[in-house]
Amino acid sequence: MKKQMLYACSLMVVVAGGANSQDASVPAKPEDTEQWQPVPVTVTPGEKGGAAPSDAIVLFDGKNLDQWVMAGDHSPARWHVEHGDMVVDKAVGNIETKRLFKNYQLHLEYKIPANIAGEGQARGGQTHLPRRLRDLHARLRERIGNV
User: Fold this and answer.
1) 43 in Cβ contact with 54 (< 8 Å)
2) Residues pairing with 85 in the sheet
3) Distance separating alpha carbons of residues 13 and 42, to the nearest angstrom
């Protein structure tokens, strides 16, 4: 029995070794190992500092809330824009984008108000952010202090 097991194991090693060996006389070609298609779209940076890159979907341009709706009923967003900033209105509730995004890279800029009222999560309008951003916002509050 031991001889049969030893023979079977050595046969598997020989077969496995033969299956993985390559013919060294045939040089490898880049086409065999590299992906050449599809060619990715060229993304150009914004023309001015702070401008969006060519592939960006701008959700807020500092002028209006056209890309946003109320989270509950999807009616037009009732927050407001002041001096190019989106201003949270806690009284009307949360907003969300009109479009659903599944796989994205997010660039976010926000200001923390000087005078914050309330305690804990009631202190700001970050609840509309994805969970990771809410966690980041909480860590920033802890590091910076009572912001």
Assistant:
1) yes
2) 82
3) 48
Confirm if 21 and 14 have CB atoms less than 8 A apart.
no
In the chain, the amino acid numbered 77 is A
Q: Using the Cα atoms of residue 76, residue 79, residue 80 and residue 86 in order, give the sign of their dihedral.
A: negative
Give the containing element (helix H, strand E) for 5.
helix 2-20
Sequence-ordered strand ranges (E) for 31-109: 68-70, 80-82, 85-87, 95-97
Calculate ∠ Cα 41-45-50, nearest 5°: 145
Mark 70-91 as b/e (b = at least 16 C-beta within 10 Å).
Answer: beeeeeebebeeeeeebebeee
Task: Enter the pTM of the model.
Answer: 0.52
Strand, helix or coil for residue 80: strand
Per-residue pLDDT of the chain (147 residues; tens, 9 = 90+): 555 555 554 545 444 454 555 566 888 887 788 877 788 888 888 888 778 888 889 899 899 999 999 988 999 999 999 999 888 888 998 888 999 888 877 777 777 667 777 776 566 555 445 555 656 666 666 666 554
